[in-house]
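Worked Example 4.2. Consider the chain below.
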Amino acid sequence: MSPGFDPGPQEGALRAALRGRRFEAVVIGGSAGGVDALVTLLPAIPAAYSLPVFCILHMPGDRESRLAELFDERLPVRVKEAADKEEIVPGTVYFAAPGYHLSVERDRTFSISCEPPVHFARPAIDVLMESSADAYGPALAGILLTGANHDGADGMARIRARGGFTVVQDPADAQVPTMPVTAINRCKPNLILPLARIHALLPMLEMNEP
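Applying the procedure from the previous section yields the following structure tokens:
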């Protein structure tokens, strides 16, 4: 766990919420304010982290993204932009490329498409979350962060419906609360947490406690 974030007395409650869960992947989505949120959140990932993490932020489709490069310099695990037909590898943080929807196939590979935007976004959080839910079922943890539109609410609902675990940033803690509020109303997530508490939760997702 990174210094500066002490889970304090709530750590037991987080562990209780995860009891009996075994995760194989994590998907994280955000929009307005999302880069700052990920700068706070992702350093919680330890060097030996065993889960793949899929990250998607809304971004202009006509610009090259440097998110993977930015976080590769900050994290102790491998960080890269997801590629079409690429096999998903544990212990890697993947970022969606701008201008394309990113999906996870049932054989645990990525696919990229140019289908129309969803909630005015491409890549869309819903597309990645819904496909990840279909591929991983109850072994998926979904985290939705700050954002200005409704993208991600349907994705979180799909994760919940498939038996996965859903975490939404507390709207009071978000730079822009629209996305968390919409998801909370849509899917009744397992946990609603401030970013610092999600930071404490992230390394716990791989512990696979009985």
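Residues 125-136 form the longest helix (12 residues). The first strand starts at residue 25 and ends at 30. Compare this with Example 4.1 before moving on.
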